[in-house]
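Question (not urgent): is this output format expected?
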Amino acid sequence: MSIGNLTFSKITLKNTFYCIINQPITVSKRYIFIRTSTTEQTPELQLNDIVTTFGLTEYNTIEEQDSAFKENSKRVEFEKLKKLIWDNKVSELYVWDLDRLFRNRKKLIEFLQICNHTKTTLYSFNQLWLQTIQNVQPPFNEIMFDFMIQVMGWLAEEDSKKKSNRVKMAVVKKDDKPTVSYKGNRWGRKPLSKQVVNKIIELHNSGCSIRQIANQVNIYDFNNNGRKISIGAVHKTIHSFKAEKVSI
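Got this back:
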């Protein structure tokens, strides 16, 4: 006999009626979180390392493509993961590295405290020592965990700062000249091609709005990946064009 998702089995034993409730199989509460910073990075490599190392067969995957250096970016997929954790729908969380969660030490510690509060066990491919700490008997496991999280978070932030400083040291800036790398390559965003600029001006002169122009003009990166030009870039191009006309 069935009622909704519940299944009832009738067993007769010594004239006594027993009702056994067979609960439906619940969705796995094991999650793998994958974050890549650029489109060139492959999430499959992170996933393969995690699945192979921890011997996982059943799991849910949440993928995010976002830079670790953008402080104000909206991490939609990561926020979904946090909500699942707060709703106690995640019992095990696997990541390739702790910096896949956060590079910022303070934010990383805050997230780990959430995991600790919701009894979510965290595993990391590059920080296998987490398993060792989780096997320590209480209350020393909590003390060791807090200490090591502070240290690892600090190291992650220091590593980010070092990379940022190396980038800054490789930049050469001279007055009235474009910023270039130490190799002499121009630094910053790739300028719009003359063809794109001419297309923007042509559409502008025909009466198209900035938003309409942005929907019609495509730009391409160094790997020939195309996308729509931003409204800001269109506005800047038109503004420069008008300024040049005034100065003539």
